[in-house]
Fold:
Amino acid sequence: MCDTLVALGETTRGGVTLFAKNSDREPDEVQNVEVVPAGDHEPGSLVRCTCLSIPQAEHTFRVLLCRPFHMFGAEMGVNEHGVVIGNEALFTREKPAKTGLTGMDLLRLALERSESARRALGTIIGLLETHGQGGNCGYRAPFFYMNGFLIADTREAYVLETVHSWWAWKRIDSSWSISNIISLEDDFDDCSPGLVDNAVKKGWCRSAKDFNFRKCYTGRLITAGAASRARERCSRELLQRGGRNPLTTIDFMQFLRHHGDREDFRPHRHGGTLCMHAADPFIRRNQTVGSLVAGIGESGIRCYVTGASNPCLSSFFPVFGEGTGMPTDYVSGGAAYDERSWWWKSERLHRRALRCWPAALAEMERLRGPLEEEMALTLEGAVPLNEETMDGYFERASGIVEQWGARLEKMHESRTGFCYRHYWNRYDKRNGIKGSAAAG
Structure:
């Protein structure tokens, strides 16, 4: 499950396009952040995607990817031209195919091949119609679904939603969000004929004039279980703040940390929030494992990531400056726990924080607030993101994690219940993380 938001310049400070996404996947599924350099490829060469090999483009652009460690494709990313894309699982009345290009494959391929949001829209549609979509998108548990995309650059944004090789898209006026539910109804700008014909044929609508994408195709059971409507409503309400005050990078970071309006929010009790916390193997089995906020303007690209799960318990840091990649000390992770990995190092502390809630949350908010405010103010001014600046902010984010970890050791543990404690202890034992994540 995921939530993706975009706001165009008319509603933002400085007239930039703001984009944010939380990637919600299985606990323990490391999501690395990486920069793939631009490349030239031999005519006729192939690129191996998750399930298929397809013809490679002669030139691919430099891209920033937030990518599950075991997959080719990415959950979200940005390219050197300022094109930013996030994809979402869609649960429909149609059965997903066992093989094809995954939504994450389509996202990466579009970023590598497209100079604009409009071109990326066409790239995904072309690949979809040529190769189809499908394949297992899960980690330990098989997971098959259709895909939706939010695509933007400094000038415009599009929502694209798909079923098999069929599609519909809409150009966004000011802001939009997607949350694992078909968001387009009869308001799309264009669609493939087969999308409507199939719905009429199966009796989901009486005629093309009667067609409503959301009503005809939404698979109600999983969509309801994922609290998709509630999350969509929440993200839309947050974006409406741009009608009163210009939206900022910090606003978008806070949107991704949103736990709803409950003052008594507790991760073991409450779900259906933009910042998603896993709690059981049945309904609440996904959590946010990576977060991205991007500001795309005429003066340049600013990208901020957590590189870790649970943005509420993480600090953002900048990446992908012009001519720079990732911070020098950033280390990727894999299937097994590795203390050197930024994701795993953060994850160990996050699981400890779950048994010290809400004190752990309040302490992280206190520590990271000044850093993020200064970072956004500085980088969105005249200061370029060179390697020295990027490494400096990552070092400070690392210092915050170290301070926070030391203070967690001294915090009083709250009670969360046997089932929640057992749920997280199973993950800890599987990966060798010492200590359970929830008190009795």
Notes: The radius of gyration is 21 Å. Residues 190 and 365 are 44 Å apart (CA to CA). The first strand starts at residue 2 and ends at 7. Confidence is low (pLDDT under 50) at residues 436-440.
